[in-house]
Amino acid sequence: MKALTFQRYGKSPGIGFADVPQPVLQPDELLVEVHAVGLNPIDNMIPTGMFKPILRFRLPATLGCDVAGVVVDVGSRVTRFKRGDAIFACVFDLGRGTLAEFVAVPEHAAAPKPANLDFAQAASIPMAGLTSWQALKERAGVRAGQKVFVPAGSGGVGSFALQLAKHLGATVGTTTSTANVGLVTGLGADEVVDYTKQAFEDALRDYDVVLGTLRGDMQEKAVGILRPGGRIVSLVGPLDAAFARARGLNVVLAFVFGLMSRKIRRRAAGRRVDYSFLFVRPDGTQLAAIGELLAAGRLRPVIDSVFPFDDAPAALDYLARGRAKGKVVVQLR
Q1: Which tens digit of pLDDT belongs to each residue from 149-182?
Q2: Angle, helices 251-260/262-270, rounded to nearest 10 degrees
Q3: What is the dihedral of CA 315, 320, 323, 326, to 10 degrees?
Q4: Quick check: 148 and 121 in contact, CB under 8 A?
Q5: What per-residue string of b and e applies to 11-30 under the rule 16 or more CB within 10 Å gives b?
Q6: What domains appear along the chain, each with residue ranges and CATH number?
Q7: String of DSSP letters for 44-97
Q8: 229-267 pLDDT, tens per residue?
Q9: Residues 6 or more apart in contact with residue 54 via CB below 8 angstroms
């Protein structure tokens, strides 16, 4: 089958199409005919080797984490799905990729595709949706009446997290460029900072939760907008020792990650603010709950562009520019 793979880690990872064997099903897996794949920034980061100590791949490895498609076969222990079912899923951190004609998806990672979404729309959801759910609902426990800051509200994760925070009853602040103010306001943002005109740390105050989606010194600046007892849940790092322990990594990596996060943790502690790093995990039960909200129209996908499979490398290059309004999707069928 045709797949988009990378050959090695580093500056020249050898990304290109290859003919690879069709997956052999395990008893708890679904064989899915891929119709569409949602792209995520980490799809460009993995080939660089940035996550090599954490994520395990057998090279050459197929790229992609999100998928929407149709079940064409099921393993002997599968009970919730059958051939012909339309599903969507995230297979991040499971040692496989989705930019291929077929992918094996563990049953626990899959959820029924919302009937009101086409495959491209459904493929845009899994990682952004699960990341938002696990950060805001599970980790931060966002509830009605709180204030949540979601930077880059027009981006792939931001556009979904903004909607979810609003659904949970929060007052939501975000940043965007002048051209995208209308978009984020339409998604439910209450306080919008045009970053081309003003710094968010000068405009926002007394927030309960910050979703860390931007690299650099954004998170250190965000400490200043949080009230005591607030939380920063970072999706981009720095990684911390708690993350290393949760994954069972060795003491050397735990020590290194502790050093990497020392500056932000000290600043957070000085303001009585909690800092933690979140690595999304596949979860079909959570994805099914997200699917119900999508089916009810309480949340909606935001898609910047859809590329054909043959143009998947160009889609990754476009995503890497950081200008997409919502998600970038690759369509196979």
Answers
A1: 999 999 999 999 999 999 999 999 999 999 999 9
A2: 60
A3: 60
A4: no
A5: eebebeeeebeebebeebbb
A6: 2-125+301-331 (3.90.180.10), 128-277 (3.40.50.720)
A7: HHGGGTTTTTTS--PSSEE---EEEEEEEEE-TT--S--TT-EEEEE-TTTT--
A8: 999 998 887 677 777 777 777 777 777 777 767 777 887
A9: 247, 249, 279
Q: Which residues touch 1 (CB under 8 Å, ≥6 apart)?
A: 19, 20, 21, 22, 100, 101, 102
- Retrieve residue 110's tokens: 């899959």
Q: Is the peptide bond before 60 cis (omega within 30 degrees of 0)?
A: yes
* Cβ contact 132:299 at 8 Å: no
Is pTM beyond 0.90 here?
Answer: yes
In terms of DSSP bridges, do strands 147-150 and 171-176 run parallel, antiparallel, or are they unpaired? parallel
Q: Is the dihedral of CA 52, 56, 61, 65 positive or negative?
A: negative
CA 174 distance to own-chain centroid? 18
Alpha helix ranges (H) inside 168-206 = 181-186, 200-203
